[in-house]
């Protein structure tokens, strides 16, 4: 189809234009994927483009890839090989992955390349499992990750930084990051004997900005390390802004899902206007979709997905299924979206990245997998691979003991990051060098001359539980656009706002800093408002190592009887501890039905945020790789409420199930 389109375009051109097109084609054959250095390379690139046949060429032979996205940071390292092997068994011949800057560079000058951050090990395993690799180093990746993968500390170091532009500070930091990242990956490039065939420059940039100076700089910065040993490419949403993401001498691709498959000819035409020749590529074909808290789980019909994939492949196009395996946003890594023009305010992404992908969150084969595999088998050979999926086990009910009140002196001593920071205005998370977790803001209330008087906050990012003398008086919320509540006379003297970061915006990046911004003010009798100043800001990072150190030190010590009986947590968050006895290790799901909102840890591993009262996700995935035979520790940090009955004497409890619940609000579901 693409060849016929090219012939029609050529026949319609005048002679002088044909000469220009030939010259352009020659330039593209030389230039796409990296510019020539002064010396002439003796050996031709191992992976390149044939612009006459509109195809990729690998080691001198025509090549087409059917890839699947799998982000190494969404599965524990011990599971990487099994996930990749399941993907390869479907017939995929390439794997696509992002590199997350913030994971590897969590603080300025600090780098992490171990465990889940061992990207080199992941890519080496992918090669061993017979995959070619499509590498997407960003530096911005979106991916429904906190801040689109950009480090939070950039906001502290450069408060007015303009991400993803030719801002000199931003480019300098990207340069430092690439100098750390790229040399580690060079041996894996196809031209150096590895299997990375393509390296992306930026990500869906045309829909964000049109800064060509930045794009050209990033192209050159990337090529400095790639050095024609792989093909440079871009990916852009097919719309009127595609040209803003196109970079000279870089191969252009597009992305679209089943909702636009009926427009496929128009989409290819848009791509051809930018790039007259070369293979057609859909770099993100969506077999599922992302989900936010407080909305229906996004599902896509498997047969419709398979039919759309077959249509794309019938054009001799290459394609990447995003996501083939989605996995999990462990810890505080899930991002958020914000788009007032599109009718969405702030909406945080759920912890699960199941995505209704081809494989499920635990890496299992689905009916969609079998349908997709059948289509791939019509175009590529299917390898003979025997799969050995992990068992999924239900461990049943586990009672948990209330063990630590977060806002108590002991809680602050155990989990706060240093002493409170005193300032006229509240300090942001970024000013406190805090990636995520909670910040407690405290100040003394003036005498209230109205009953009630309205407390008003200009902006809260993202959610605040409001206390007076550690008694809950209400909740403020960015996603619900609730920024005020009444305070009554005589409630107390110390105002406390406990603010939660629910995830930085990952799309349309616009410096989504966290905390309290603008004025916090109290209504006066004359109708005016009195700004409140002289704040203490206390950071609670809630990092795995800190929580686990507290648990090992304290054991399962119970709080006093009053706090232990609470169903609604009126005095602040409480940490609950419990023990899961395991006789046989398998994948399982922590069922938080009936609980409110919080974070859960198993054996010191942060499973992520839960919020079953909002839904649709009710369970948290627990990988078998973090469990052990015998006792396994459980810590739950609950912000709002437990699933105790109002007058029940039993301890609150959770349940470990063999099946995920991602499709509905839980309400007060009794545990078995």
Overall geometric form: globular
Overall strand count: 32
**Low-confidence segments, ≥5 residues, pLDDT <50?**
1-31, 33-41, 666-672
Alpha carbon gap, first and last residue:
58 Å
Fraction of residues in H or I helices: 10-25%
Instruction: Classify the fold: give the CATH topology of the largest domain.
Output: TIM Barrel
Q: Please describe the biggest sheet, giving its number of strands, its sense, and whether it closes into a barrel.
A: 8 strands, parallel, barrel
Q: In CATH terms, what is the architecture of the largest domain?
A: Alpha-Beta Barrel
Structure at a glance:
With 672 residues, the protein is of the alpha+beta class. One of its GO terms (biological process) is galactose metabolic process.
Q: Your description of this structure?
A:
The structure is a single chain. This protein is of the alpha+beta class and 672 residues long. Helix content is 22%, strand content 25%. It is built from 15 helices and 32 strands. Strand 10, helix 11 (302-313) and strand 11 (318-321) form a beta-alpha-beta unit. Helix 7 (168-185) packs parallel to helix 8 and helix 11 (302-313) packs parallel to helix 12 (367-376). The N and C termini lie far apart (58 Å). Residues 1-31, 33-41 and 666-672 have low confidence and may be disordered.
